[in-house]
UniProtKB/TrEMBL annotation, chain A:
Alphabetical list of CDD domains matching this protein: TM_PBP2
Designated name of the protein: ABC transporter permease
UniProt superkingdom: Bacteria
Organism from which the protein derives: Seohaeicola zhoushanensis
One cellular component (GO) term of this entry: plasma membrane
InterPro entries: MalF_N, MetI-like, MetI-like_sf, Sugar_ABC_transporter
Lineage of origin: Bacteria, Pseudomonadati, Pseudomonadota, Alphaproteobacteria, Rhodobacterales
SUPFAM superfamilies according to UniProt: MalF N-terminal region-like, MetI-like
Ranges of residues in domain ABC transmembrane type-1: 90-305
GO terms for biological process, alphabetical: transmembrane transport
Subcellular location: Cell membrane
Keyword Lipid metabolism: no
From TrEMBL, chain B:
Transmembrane segments annotated in the record for this chain: 18-36, 42-60
Origin species: Seohaeicola zhoushanensis
Entry superkingdom: Bacteria
Official protein name in the record: Uncharacterized protein
Keywords: Membrane, Transmembrane, Transmembrane helix
UniProtKB/TrEMBL annotation, chain C:
Iron in keyword set: no
Pfam families per record: SBP_bac_1
Localization of this protein: Periplasm
A GO-annotated cellular component: periplasmic space
InterPro entries attached to this UniProt entry: Bact_solute-bd_prot1, SBP
Domain of life per record: Bacteria
Lineage, highest ranks first: Bacteria, Pseudomonadati, Pseudomonadota, Alphaproteobacteria, Rhodobacterales
Main location: periplasm
Family statement drawn from the similarity comment of this UniProt entry: Belongs to the bacterial solute-binding protein 1 family.
Gene3D superfamilies: Periplasmic binding protein-like II (3.40.190.10)
Name used for this protein in its record: ABC transporter substrate-binding protein
Length: 315, 62, 437
């Protein structure tokens, strides 16, 4: 008779405990195993969320805990939702979100489609294209401030080379009209490869025989693209949009390094504004309400996305 | 269209989820649109209503 | 002879702190900049005398407030000694971050009368002007100006200036002259290179543009309140003088600064000057020793002037006091450091190494004015300094001002009056939350 670990464990279990365990159903034992994880989730996710909701009805300040805290009802929400400055940060976020996703999907898909054609060195090109994504956002933000420098910046120089305007006549970061586009350009530069990779995975997953069958049916290339390629890649594209959308809704590091939210507040995205309220002004209660508003928005959007994703998958 | 209304009346999941999604979408657009401050003010309630509704109706039968 | 004094001091402190002779590890926190390196050098004497080991935690300016205030708010033990910014004193005192030093000063015979009154008021007291001391003035500082003396001395430039403005090109005596000179240099060719007027502070993220704008506001007679301590800002913050000063700063930014300096603070100002892009620049006195020593643009190519007056003299205060953090486990050793640092001899050496001492023994020394090319300007500046709010809620007040000023000056939104009105609204809200209004 071999003496397995289980046997030894069984023998070592004190009799009262053993009796109790023997009476448990499989389901109960499963619960016991899952319990630590659930407990951990409750402790690190659910509890803070509930606590944040609680704080959002108070005037608590984390740096001045001794000051005393009062419940002020919905006043925080009222203040945030009637504050036209916060409304402006929402608009800045919308601009950033819309255009980054638009350009990244457009360029990313095109690149993926091009690189998916078998040609020599396409692996090398993939690697080169993917490089920006590997960098730290803080570093990217920092060196693009140099590229955007009106007097010595490469970006301004290239624009002037092609368009003939004086390089120091425009300031990508300093001008109210250009700064929102400056951050769109940098984010697109950095994250288009990510969208490309996902699209590439989609394209590679389309079996060749579908195209061959279409070929036999004499479908034109154009028709093949719209009736085979696009629908088959769509779920992947949705995934990319979902990722980029959520990532950019909470965009912080890149833009802080690049513009610091300036000029004025034109590139002060919601998360930058929230960080200032929470950790520079230390209005913890107010910032909690702010965070709850953002949380509900992202949660709602994510629900729609997940639903849409399931729908596309079913097709 | 009548199928949609029918689904609503019989508390089916599909059409109700559609209503919730539209509410959420509307709330997000209201939150980020640059035209009307009052719409921004009420955006959160709209999104919240949509999200809560979504959670509830996703337990309705198919 | 000096050493004997030091020995005597050591003996004194040894008796004062009898029973805790064992060496301890002290950590001093400050911003990462030139004076901090001077302090490391200076502190070697303290290590030699006390046997304690000094460690340093220096954080770059843009993150300094964030990092250190987090540390204090969380009751962290990283810093035993903190050279915290002057605006933090209210929060440091009211939230119990800093040790109150009155008893210690009395016991050790350290008198605040030995330090320049403006620095004691700004760096040590809370509530303002009351004899409650939470820091020892460590580093006096103010916002000043420096310029290319060699360009100002060139005959062709001098002649061109005289022709244009009918007066000699010299250090400006008023803010408006300052702007005139800056505009004169803007876009001018010097040695085949286009140069610009002046580098000024426009930074959005931390405190930059506020420190720059107040450099214009104070000389125009700006006041935070009509009656000190009453928080009645209407008519003070948005007075006609304040509006004029703010419009002046915007004109300065639009017409006399290099392109691309839309988010610039200390580092950018130094870069602009050292790379020969600008004729003048504003910056803190703390950098002046380093600028003077610069091999390319220092020496006889540079000179300094105090922030010019307009309706009255006025400079923006910088600088810091040194405090003992109340969460420290080594409070006694930290106090020992402060006691050592307060000695006149140490303060003299501090000045000679590049730190701006606030001790009267240094400042009132007849040789002080000539001890450095900027020493006289420093004295003049410190005689008329004004500081931002030092309230416990200073961060909220500062962020509001950063936003309103940057919106108006850099982002071209609204008028100066509207910006200041909005600022009053923001500040009123903060003081209402604080229960002070």
């Amino acid at each position: 008779m071999t003496d397995t670990i289980a046997d030894r464990a069984a023998r070592a279990t004190p009799v009262p405990v053993a009796r109790r365990i023997r009476g448990l159903s499989d389901r109960a034992i499963a619960w016991i195993f899952v319990a630590p994880t659930i407990f951990l989730l409750l402790a690190v996710n659910i509890f803070p969320l509930i606590w944040t909701i609680n704080l959002s009805f108070t005037d608590f300040k984390a740096n001045r805990a001794a000051r005393g805290t009062e419940y002020i009802g919905l006043r925080n929400y009222e203040r945030i939702l009637t504050d036209s400055d916060i409304w402006l940060t929402m608009q800045a976020t919308a601009h950033f979100l819309f255009w980054t996703i638009f350009f990244q999907v457009l360029i990313g898909f095109t690149l993926a489609w091009l690189i998916n054609r078998k040609f020599r060195g396409n692996d090398l090109w993939t690697t080169i294209i993917v490089l920006p994504m590997m960098l730290s956002p803080a570093v990217v933000g920092n060196f693009w401030t140099f590229l955007y420098q009106p007097q010595i910046g490469l970006f301004n120089y290239i624009v002037s080379f092609f368009s003939g305007v004086d390089p120091s006549s425009f300031e990508m970061i300093g001008s109210v009209t250009l700064a929102p586009w400056a951050i769109v350009i940098v984010d697109t530069w950095m994250w288009t490869p990510f969208v490309m990779l996902i699209c590439l995975a989609g394209l590679r997953s389309i079996p060749d025989y579908i195209y061959e069958a279409a070929e036999i049916d004499r479908a034109s290339k154009w028709r093949q693209f719209w009736t085979i390629t696009v629908p088959m890649v769509l779920p992947f594209l949705m995934l990319a949009v979902l990722f980029r959308g959520i990532e950019n809704f909470k965009m912080f590091d890149l833009v802080v390094q690049l513009t610091g939210g300036g000029p004025g507040s034109t590139t002060e995205l919601t998360s930058i504004n929230l960080k200032r309220e929470a950790f520079e002004k230390w209005r913890t209660g107010y910032a909690s309400a702010y965070a709850i508003i953002l949380f509900v928005t992202v949660f709602g959007l994510a629900s729609i996305y997940v639903k849409a994703l399931n729908k596309v998958k079913e097709r | 269209m009548s199928g949609f209304l029918n689904g609503l009346l019989r508390l089916r999941r599909g059409p109700w989820e559609m209503v919730a999604s539209i509410l959420i979408g509307l709330g997000v657009v209201m939150l980020m649109q640059p035209f009307w401050l009052a719409a921004y003010t009420w955006s959160f309630l709209t999104t919240l209503a949509g999200t809560v509704m979504f959670i509830v109706v996703s337990h309705f039968p198919e | 002879m000096k050493t004997s004094k030091f020995l005597a001091a050591t003996a004194l402190s040894a008796t004062a702190f009898a029973g805790m002779a064992q060496a301890e590890d002290l950590t001093l926190c400050w911003a990462a900049w030139d004076p901090a390196n001077a302090l490391v050098e200076l502190s070697k004497d303290f290590e030699a005398q006390s046997g304690h080991k000094m460690n340093f935690e220096f954080v770059p300016w843009p993150n300094f407030a964030d990092r250190m205030l987090n540390e204090l708010n969380s009751g962290g033990k990283l810093c035993d000694l903190l050279i915290g910014d002057s605006q933090w004193i209210g929060g440091g005192a009211e939230n119990g971050h800093y040790v109150k030093l009155n008893d210690f000063f009395d016991k050790e015979g350290i008198s605040m009368d030995d330090f320049a009154p403006a620095t004691v008021y700004a760096y040590s007291t809370w509530p303002k002007g009351e004899p409650n001391y939470y820091a020892l003035p460590a580093m006096g500082d103010a916002n000043g100006w420096f310029y290319r003396k060699d360009w100002f001395a060139r005959d062709d430039i001098k002649a061109a200036f005289k022709e244009k403005h009918g007066r000699d090109l010299a250090e400006p005596k008023t803010q408006k002259e300052l702007l005139e000179i800056a505009q004169f240099f803007q876009g001018r060719e010097i040695d085949g290179k286009t140069v610009y007027g002046a580098a000024i502070f426009t930074e959005r993220g931390s405190e930059g543009i506020t420190m720059g704008v107040t450099g214009a506001l104070y000389p125009w007679g700006f006041k935070y309140e009509n009656t000190p301590g009453k928080y009645d800002m209407e008519g003070a913050v948005n007075s006609p003088q304040a509006v004029e000063a703010l419009e002046f700063y915007k004109e300065f930014y639009k017409t006399a600064t290099p392109p691309g300096y839309t988010n610039s603070y200390m580092g950018e100002s130094l870069d602009a000057f050292k790379s020969g892009q600008v004729a003048m620049a504003m910056n803190w006195f703390a950098f002046f020793p380093g600028l003077y020593a610069d091999p390319n643009t220092g020496g006889d190519k540079i000179d300094f002037f105090v922030n010019p007056p307009q309706n009255n003299p006025g400079s923006t205060l910088g600088g810091q006091g040194i405090s003992v953090v109340s969460y420290s486990d080594h409070k006694d050793a930290a106090l020992e450091y402060i006691k050592w640092f307060a000695q006149p001899d140490v303060q003299k050496k501090w000045w000679s190494l590049g730190g701006y001492s606030c001790h009267n023994a240094v400042l009132n020394d007849p040789g002080f004015k000539d001890s450095a090319p900027f020493a006289g300007d420093f004295l003049e500046a410190m005689a008329n300094v004004q500081d931002f709010w030092q309230e416990p809620a200073y961060a909220e007040l500062l962020l509001a001002m950063q936003k309103r000023m940057h919106d108006y000056v850099v982002a071209d939104q609204g008028t100066a009056k509207e910006a200041l009105d909005a600022l009053i609204k923001d500040w009123t809200e903060v003081f209402e939350d604080e229960g002070k209004l």
